[in-house]
Amino acid sequence: MAQYELLLPKMGESVAEATIIKWAKQPGDEIEIDDIILEIATDKVDSEVPSPVKGKLVEHRFTENNVAQVGDVIAVIEVGEEDSSNIDTYKEVEIINEVEKVQPDDIPFLPETAKDEVSEAQHDFSKSDKFYSPLVKSIAQEEGISVSELDHIEGSGNDGRVTKDDLLGYISNRNPQAKNNSITPKPETKSEKEQEALEAPKDEPAPSSVASRPMSDEIIEMDRMRKVISEHMIASKETAAHVTSFVEADVTNLVLWRDRVKGVFEKREGEKITFTPIFVEAVAKAIKDMPMINISLNGHQIIKKKDINIGMATALPNGNLIVPVIKNADQLNLVGLTKAVNSLAKRARENKLLPDEVKGGTITLTNIGGFG
Asked: I need a surface site. Which of 100, 143, 284, 300 has the fewest CB within 10 A?
């Protein structure tokens, strides 16, 4: 039997390490090609590492919450001789980013509102607001499972993502009622502490964690991304004083101009022009005129940034936020900015951003106009 050494894949030029957050497969488990082996996390992006080979997992080289360097051997897989002849032992694997996607809209970095119409194409995954791996999509198509039916399957992955095992389990238990999408949601169950509190004798005090809050309150554990956002915001407060200033501007002419040219622009360039690239261009020009707004602090040192890298705050469907960065925005014309904005926004929704693409921002733009 031959052994395949699975390496921690490259995730961008500036990313040298990642944290092992969960092993999806354990030593002794049989593995198919594209099965998810583990989940990893960088500063902001959570990803899945699939297996490029078929075999049996022999060894974990890192435990959960350990940090591995890019290129480290993170797992060993035993493969048969017939499967090993054409396998490069150190072949890099493509990571699969793990965030749900939403549909594009006119403001590229805000979640899309729900659509009333239902797509006629049963396997048009672009109509779903959930992320499915290529393997899950392939199995669903082969088994004749529509996107709407797939959306009802309860997933065990991060943020409720449907994994290959979830889908195969669903298929094995499939029945006519399930095919009609008549899936009954699981009844909510009380936590053990809440149940103990309800069953406790009247003359005994309930546990303090329950007694300190109303029974109707719901406790939601933060996911990893939200914890990181919280830590970064606290660090930002500790680094520099925060003040807020408001200046209003009449952009009536800008709106009228966009309404007039957007149809011709899309036909000529193949891209929708939104307000975002226009605002990015305005910010980049303002920084050229007033470079001291493009700075950061290091203790008592002011670092004046040479590059103008504009981040655009991007809302994700699970309520989290990510900031893809347009590098050297001042060197792009409006067409180039439009293409950059649309590409980053689309890949942010599909969680196909590389870690390098959410790093290096020198100033951030947030557009909440879509909320009225």
From this structure: 300
